[in-house]
Amino acid sequence: MTAAAPWWRTAAVYQVLPRSFADGDGVGDLAGLRARLPYLAGLGVDAVWVTPWYPSPMVDNGYDVADYRDVDAALGGLAEAEAFVREAHGLGLRVLVDIVPNHTSDAHAWFRAALSGDAQARARYLFRPGRGADGALPPNDWESCFGGPSWTRTTDPDGRPEEWYLHSFAPEQPDLDWRNPEVRAEFTDVLRFWFDRGVDGFRVDVAHGLVKEQGLPDGLGRDRRTEEHPGWDQDEVHEVYREWRQVADSYDPPRVFVAEAWVARPERLPLYLRPDELHMAFEFEPLHVAWREGPWRRVVERGLATAALTGAPSAWALTNHDVVRQVTRYARTQWPERGSNESERARWGTEAPDLALGRVRARAAALLTTALPGLVYVYEGEELGLEEVEDIPAERRLDPIHTRSGGRDPGRDGSRVPLPWSGDRPPYGFSSGGSAEPWLPQPPGWGPHTVAAQERDPASTLALYRRALALRREVMAGPLAWSAAPDGVLAFTRGTTAVWVNFGPAAVALPAGLRVALRSGPAPEGSLPVDTAAWLVPDEEGSR
Ligand code: NOJ
Question: Assign residue 516 a region: left if phi > 0, alpha if psi is -120 to 50, beta otherwise?
Fold first, then answer.
């Protein structure tokens, strides 16, 4: 990597859910985030990605946006966001925010106007007549990603049933019609609004979903979450990103996009990463891959192949706000190859997690992903080794996946619980006043996992992340080359640094002539225990 390479190609990015990060009266806010910026700078990340901060009825954790040019008053409003961007920059941190272009909130002015009969506003969404007698059946057979039909029927002012509108997610998230030029113009303007305020880039929500197949044909029973579907990944979507890239490139320094793009056919992902489109796309396989050597090797190989093909760096993440936290995933019997959100959450209550084991493995996984070429995304709380909170009472759960599944699927709230900062009982220093109850309940027993407790412990997961993120800049350079190693060990080099991860059934001897610069857990000299990872450097290096 030359000195001139742009910052984002090798960055470590910290994902913040502002309502769960810090401060506020039980709900986190941007003042809390500003106050903790030195914590993030000290962690050693290069950038902060803030999930949607826009005014929102909060049906889907802010992914239901009511106004794209403002910040929710509960988070502190626009001026607070501008102060946050300035202060982050002052500490050398870049700022990415979410853009949610597939759908608005039903509280957005456009959708309100559409419902009140404004034809121009209506044409920005996907309203269609129903099928069957009196149009009583949805226009097609598409399922919402949150369960149930993708269509909701509207009524006229007299309460008579009318047309249906499409929503790929909750009914409160109506999909926009990206074939409408007004929609395209609006979003390029929104991009400029934030770029002008210093935002360094966007994470693009549902990047594969904006354009639907002409005519909205039936999906014929295909599962829209896993199979090719007329609701996703249409060729015309690339016109949108070519236009966006021009906007990003018109700034100095150029701004950047990371795609959340789920494609049924992996060979379609590189299309989003063409040089005149998006800069990178998340690698999603690590979110569900089993804690096993073979599946992990395949995941890394596929990621590197995409990077080699496109020139875009891989964007690695072990977790995010949509999936079960890795400590809990690794704490149960491992799948042969991989699980899924549904299969992982279905295990709740059926197999007790061994969280101590999960933490040991999650630490090793951190040394694996932070050693890979490209970017690494760290989701808030993963640096503390937090587990999924599985026992949130049903009446406190907010995720529409929970509601729309009739309570069968617990949903994603368990990964979104407010962070523990200090103390030995809830709210663990989360609320500024000290006592306000967090918006999602924190579990008892997080005392040892607070930031304050881990700062006192040189063997803590927080200390490991700090060392890994700092050392990564020094010793992880150059392409990855696989190395020979005992069965069950994933081993590779980056330049003169060797990385060994022991997935096998027994401890192995480390290679001679190298010194351990960082290890995910305790070990006798020269040995790598089960579920442990190590970074090894030539004897004379890495003693810093
Ligand atoms: C992906 C986001 O990560 C998720 O949280 C959200 O529910 C959907 N997109 C819909 O916006």
Answer: beta
**What is the C-alpha radius of gyration for the chain, rounded to an integer number of angstroms?**
23
Render pLDDT for 117-140 as a digit per residue (tens, 0 to 9): 999 999 999 999 999 999 999 999
Name which of 82, 96, 76 is nearest 16 in CA terms: 96
How is 66-78 classified by DSSP, letter by letter?
A: S-TTS--GGGTHH
- Cα–ligand 1 centroid distance for 63 (angstroms): 6
Q: How far is CA 110 from the centre of its chain?
A: 28
Closest ligand 1 atom, CA of 320? 3
Cβ of 206 closer than 6 Å to ligand 1, yes or no, is yes
Catalytic positions, written as ranges: 205, 260
- Quick one: how far is CA 369 from the chain centroid? 15
Which pTM value belongs to this model? Answer: 0.97
Q: Are 165 and 151 in contact (CB under 8 A)?
A: yes
Give percent of the chain above pLDDT 70.
98
Decide: 386 and 449 in contact? Cβ < 8 Å. yes
> Cβ(63) to ligand 1 under 6 A?
yes
Start-end of H helices in 70-154: 77-90, 109-115, 119-122
